[in-house]
Amino acid sequence: MILETQTDVIAALADPKTYGASKVQIRQSHIAILFLAGQKAYKLKRAVLYPDVDFSTPEKRRLACVWEMKRSAVYAPQLRLKIQSVRRLADGTIVIGGRAGVEVDTLLEMKRIPDRELLNRLLPSPRFDRFEAMTLAEKIAQFHMTAKVCKSQWGAETIQRIILENESVLSCFGDLFNKTAVNALARKSLDVLKAQASLISYRQKTGHVRKCHGDLLLSNIAWDGKDFAFFSPIEYNDTLSCVDTLYDMADLMMDLEAKGLRRLTNMLFNHYMAYMNDMNGFPLLALYQSIRAASRAAVCAKKSTFMRGAEKRQMRHNARVYFDLARHFMTPFKPILICCGGLSGSGKSRIAREIGGLMNPAPGAVILRDDIIKKQMVGLAPHEPFDVRHDTPAFEAVVYEALRQQAKTAIANYSCVIIDALFIKQAERAETEKLAKDMGVPFVGIWAHAPLDIRNERIHNRKRNPSDVSKKRQLERQLKEQIGPVAWKKISTDVSREQTLRRVVRLLKKQLKIVKRKMVLK
Q1: Where are any strands of DSSP class E within 178-239?
Q2: CATH number at residue 353
Q3: Please, how many CA atoms are within 13 Å of residue 87, restricted to the half-sphere of its CB?
Q4: Are 451 and 341 contained in the same domain?
Q5: In CA terms, which of 110, 126, 332, 456 is 20 to 30 Å from 484?
Q6: Are 317 and 385 within one domain?
Q7: Is the pLDDT at 266 greater than 70, yes or no?
C-alpha cells in the first residue's frame, strides 16, 4: 500500500537540473526508485507499507537508508554509499543536501554502475563463463561462511508465512496467473514444508541460518571483469535477510534459470556446494527455489502496476516466467545416476561438468567428485592441497561410501546425479551400480580414456582444479593399477571437447532430459 505520493520529490529528482546533469534515467521497483545522473545513482525509498516492508514515514525511510549503507559496506564497498537529505526550500524548491529548508526525505547516493556490468544485462556473454561462475560461487560461499549466525530467526512458521503471502498476492492478479494453479503451487509447497520441518529446525539450530544478502538477484550483482559487487542487500526486514544460506543462494540460481542459463546455474551450484559442503540441506533446495520464483512473480506483478506500454508488457511477461519456474521446481522428475570414471586427465570431469546442465530438474545434476569429497572430509577447501598421507585404502573406501550416500540423498529428492571419480576398483563400480538398482533409477556408466601424452598435457594445463595429480609419474603409477574388466560405455576423449560432448550426448540421448524452456526473461 502506498501511503504518500512523494509526487513533488519524485518530480524534482527526475529533473536533470537538480543534479546539473544533461539527463536522468529512472529505474523503479515496488519499494524504491533509482535516479541515474552522471556518474552517480540516487536511491529513494517509496513511502509504502507492505506485510514485509514498512517505509511509511520519513524517519523509517532514513533509518532504512542508514542500514542499507552499513550492509553495503560489506557486500559492495566499491559503491561508496552515503546519506543525502532531500530538502524543501522556503520557495518550495526541492534540493539534495545542504542545511537550508526542511528535510522531507532521504536518499542513498552511490557510485553509478554501468548497465553493461549488471549481470541481468551482461548475461549471457562469452566473457562470463565457467571460471567467472566459479569465482562468483566462491565469493558467495565466503560471505555465507563468515556471516552472523541467527538461531532465533527463520524456521517453518516463517517459510509458511512467505508461501501464503505469495499465494495471496498472486491470487490478486487473475489476468496474469491461473488461480487454480496458484492454489495448487501453494499446497505443494506447504506439503514439502511439512515433510521437511524437522530438517529446517535442525539447520536453524546448527548455524545454517545467517544474516545474508537476502536479495541475490542478477540485477543486484555487478561484475567489472575483475571483481563482483553485491548491492541492495535487504536491510528493512530480518525475516528476509536472516535466512538459510541455501535459501539465499537459491535466489541467484532461480534467476539464472529464469534467463535460460542452466549450464552456468549448474556450474555455480556445484562449485558453491564444493566449498559449503552442504548436502544436508539439499532436500530443501527445490522448495527454496520455488518460493523464490513465486516471490519474484509477485514482485514483477506489483511492479507492472507502476508501468505503461512496452515496459509494462515486459514486466508482466517476466511475472509469468517466474511463476512458470516456481511450478517447475515443484514438479518431480525421475532421476538417473551417471558415473564418469577413468584415470586422471582422461576428461571424465569435463564430461560431468558439461552434461550436468542438460538434466532436469533445475539446477541440473548434482555432481559429486572424489577429489572434492576427500578434501571436505579432512576440512580442506577445493583449492587447498591434499596430504597424501591420508590416501590409504581405508580412507578411499570411506570416500566412495560418502559419494554413494550423498548420491542417495540427491536421488531421493528427485535429482539426477553424476559421480565423477577414478573408479579404478571393480568393487567400487559394482557398489555404485547396485545403489542405482536398489533405488530403482536408471544407471549409465561412462569410462573416459585418452593416450598418456594427452592426459599428461591436460594435467599440466589445468586451472583451478581440485585434483592434486600434476606429474607424469602419477599418471604412470595409475596405469599399473588392477582395473579389471570395465563394462561401462567407453568414450575416447582424444578429440576436441565439442566432439567429446557430442559423443556423450549421443550415448545418453534417451537418458538426458535436455531443457528447452519456452519462456525466459526478457
Answers
A1: 209-211, 221-223, 228-230
A2: 3.40.50.300
A3: 14
A4: yes
A5: 456
A6: no
A7: yes
